[in-house]
Design goal:
With about 400 residues, this protein is α/β, with parallel strands linked by helices. The N and C termini lie far apart (about 60 Å). The structure holds pyridoxal-5'-phosphate. The site of pyridoxal-5'-phosphate has 13 residues, from helix 5.
């Protein structure tokens, strides 16, 4: 039993204690434990004799068998993530967030099945549905992220899975997840949520009726822009399917990478707290600027998703977008190129601030992104927000030319 199986513990305590089982952090023969689970690297596991080999072949989890099935470093991270989601049976780790999404969809869908995919999903998720899943005979339809309980009208007899992502990639619409999962449960349809923006700290997905919670650990959980990994945390009903698919697909992660992600996990609560505060400071400043059309950030009271976000989420991370009012592509480029304290780059959730241009209009199919103003996405880091704001002010000056 893991220390963080205790449901009375609060999330910050679980983040600190998760995965630190004595059998993973110390060797009783050495007389004690160390704080962090060591990096256990292995391909071959040696057995005492044939009886031992045979016995361990049947143990599918938490027992050394062969490197691909993990070592205690890997199990420690999986265990810590499972402890963050009440009602979770287990967590599987994948070499990236994209790998986690693809493996989850492959595990749960078969030829002839129908998938309902949110129109604001991360673009590579759509690409997987439109090519690989289509080739395998799974039909995907995209739905309006604001559909809410109206999802009931879109469910067909062959619908097996509803995929959610909230807030949505690039445009940050907040979905009514409890309304959708309630309909899904009633109709016997599974739900899977890309919970990368909030993490279970701000939105415990399984407690809101979701069956499979996905995260790109590359983002906030890793938190230091130096490791790629993804996870799926699932209920008891779904977990065995995910595990056998992961084994068949040969999905495994390196213990060195798990140690890096575990280090990030320990400080997730303080980083999320500060990045949310910094994000709100920058977003509030932007909202008052004449150069800005609108700020897409559910933490702002004026945001269309604010009411549902306030009801369901316990905070905001530091990732949001905003539009440049009446600007063109060249002006957006001048603005971004002039920033000194925002790196231009993909990914987000690291300790350092980032900026990228984004163009949702070309991605949507079920809904239309009609705003003509160019969009910018910011990932606000742990810098002093006053320095970031001064930088953005210089960016606006450069944009005006
Ligand atoms: C980045 C991202 C992913 C993919 O994660 P990788 O670790 O980069 O493969 C999935 N979903 C969302 C919402 C993301 O932002």
């Amino acid at each position: 039993m893991s220390k963080n199986d205790d449901p009375s513990l609060r999330p910050a305590t679980k983040l600190v204690q998760g995965g630190r089982r004595p059998e993973w952090t110390g060797d009783p023969r050495l007389g004690g434990g160390i704080v962090n689970p060591p990096v256990w690297r292995a391909s071959t596991i040696l057995y005492d004799n044939i009886a031992d080999l045979k016995a361990r072949g049947h143990a599918t989890h938490d027992k050394l068998y062969y490197g691909r099935r993990g070592t205690p470093t890997v199990w420690a991270l999986a265990d810590a993530l499972t402890g963050m989601e009440a009602g979770a049976e287990g967590t599987l780790l994948y070499p990236s967030g994209v790998a986690a999404n693809s493996a989850g969809l492959l595990a749960l869908l078969s030829p002839g099945d129908h998938l309902l995919m949110v129109d604001s999903a991360y673009e590579p998720t759509r690409a997987f549905c439109n090519s690989m899943l289509a080739r395998l005979g799974v039909e995907t339809s995209y739905y309006d992220p604001l559909v809410g309980a109206g999802i009931a009208d879109l469910i067909r007899p062959e619908t097996r899975l509803i995929f959610l992502e909230s807030p949505g990639s690039l445009t940050f619409e907040v979905q009514d997840i409890p309304a959708i999962t309630a309909v899904a449960r009633e109709r016997g349809v599974l739900t899977m949520l890309d919970n990368t923006w909030a993490t279970p700290l701000l939105f415990p997905a399984l407690a809101h009726g979701v069956d499979v919670a996905m995260m790109s650990l590359t983002k906030y959980v890793g938190g230091h822009s130096d490791v790629m990994m993804g996870s799926l945390t699932a209920t008891r009903a779904v977990w065995p399917k995910l595990r056998s698919a992961a084994y068949q697909l040969g999905q495994s992660v390196s213990p060195d990478d798990c140690a890096a992600v575990l280090r990030g996990l320990r400080t997730l609560e303080v980083r999320m707290q500060r990045q949310g505060e910094n994000g709100l400071a920058v977003a509030n400043w932007l909202a008052d600027r004449a150069e800005v059309g609108r700020v897409l950030y559910p933490a702002l009271p004026g945001d269309p998703g604010h009411a549902i976000w306030s009801r369901d989420f316990s905070g905001a991370s530091g990732l949001f977008g905003f539009t440049l009012k009446g600007a063109d592509e060249a002006a957006r480029t001048r603005f971004i190129d002039s920033l000194a304290h925002f790196g231009i780059g993909f990914s987000w959730g690291g300790y350092e601030s980032l900026v990228v241009p984004s163009d949702p209009a070309t991605i949507r199919t079920a809904t239309r992104w009609a705003d003509p103003d160019p969009l910018v996405r910011l990932s606000i880091g742990l810098e002093d927000p006053a320095d970031l704001i001064a930088d953005l002010e210089r960016g606006f000056a450069a944009m005006r030319g």
